[in-house]
Every structure is written in C-alpha cells, then in structure tokens.
TrEMBL record:
The protein, known as: DUF397 domain-containing protein
InterPro entries listed in its UniProt record: DUF397 (IPR007278)
Superkingdom of origin: Bacteria
One Pfam family in the UniProt entry: DUF397
Organism encoding this protein: Thermostaphylospora chromogena
Every DUF397 domain range: 7-72
C-alpha cells in the first residue's frame, strides 16, 4: 500500500523531540485497505512515529470510535 501522500497526525501531547508516540491518518480504504478491511471507503491508519516505514494498523471508523471511547472511559488503565 502506498501511504506516501497520507497526512499523518501526532498527538498534541507529543513533545518537540518526537517522543514515543503513534501517528494516525484517515486513508481511502478503496485504495489502501489490507485484504481483511476491504469494502470500507475510509479507514483509520495507525503507525509508530519512530518507524514510519514499519507496519501499519488499520481500523474502521466504528472500531476507532470504540477504541477512543474506551480510552476516554479509562477502560485501558493498568491498576
């Protein structure tokens, strides 16, 4: 998949040094979808900012919305 023209975004909490963070981007699913995510017009792509040529995870909008809601509800906090 060619993601060279994708506008990647980092969290505003990322410092000037780049830090340890992920980048997210909205991508055209009809062009960039991996086989298991075909049929979606839009996908959310996630990658490691320190390894931009490394693996990319893809989420549907519903999956991404559920993840963000879980983060906001502290579902992933480690006790």
């Amino acid at each position: 998949m060619n993601l060279s023209d994708v506008e990647w975004k980092k969290s505003t909490y990322t410092g000037d040094d780049g830090g340890n963070c992920v980048e997210v981007a909205e991508v055209n699913g009809t062009i960039n979808a991996p086989e298991h995510k075909t049929g979606y017009a839009k996908l959310i792509a996630v990658r490691d900012s320190k390894n931009p040529d490394g693996p990319v995870l893809y989420f549907t909008q519903a999956e991404w919305d559920a993840f963000v809601a879980g983060v906001k509800d502290n579902e992933f906090d480690i006790d």
